[in-house]
Amino acid sequence: MTDHLSIAIAQINPTVGDLSGNLKRIRSTAAKAAESGADLVIFGELVVSGYSPEDLVLKPAFQEAVECSVLDLAGETKDGNPGLLIGAPWRIDGVLHNAAIMLDDGEISAVRLKHQLPNYGVFDEKRVFQSGPLPGPISFRGIRLGVMICED
């Protein structure tokens, strides 16, 4: 277990549907955080797809492209690179969720699903996502982290 953890908080401006552009921003921000000695870089809700993806997220081809993008990012967390906590639409057993995904050591090490789906004003999440269980902590390099999404 480590006795300290350096965390970089990354608030970037992803564009809905621009997976390659969003990944470029994520990679650039992660590289800068690595230069600063960060162990973990935390990104915002649905950073991979952009928020709010609305009906785009219902297209199976888009869901597959997001999943491939996340797996590519996971592979880049090897060899001492910082871990990444990213937000993305994520399918589990064919059910679509709004997820926080921990990428570390070249793989997906944890997934937490948004529990409280807002459905007022500009929010329409109950129509496109399924609610997940109450999230428990994520273990990251020997430290337990509480990870919540939006209103959780």
Give a verbal description of the structure.
By secondary structure, this protein is of the alpha/beta class. It is built from three helices and seven strands. It has helices at 19-35, 60-75, 125-128; strands spanning 7-9, 40-42, 83-92, 95-104, 107-113, 138-140, 143-145. A five-stranded mixed β-sheet has the order 1-2-3-4-5. It is globular and about 40 Å long. The mean pLDDT is 94.
Structural class: alpha/beta
Percent in helix: 10-25%
Order of helices and strands: EHEHEEEHEE
| Sheet with the most strands, sense and barrel status | 5 strands, mixed
Average pLDDT? 94
Number of strands: 7
| End-to-end gap | 28 Å
How big is the Rg? 15 Å
Which residue ranges are poorly predicted, with pLDDT under 50 across at least 5 consecutive positions? none
Strand composition percent: 25-35%
Question: Count of helical segments?
Answer: 3
- The main sheet orders its strands as 1-2-3-4-5
Shape: globular
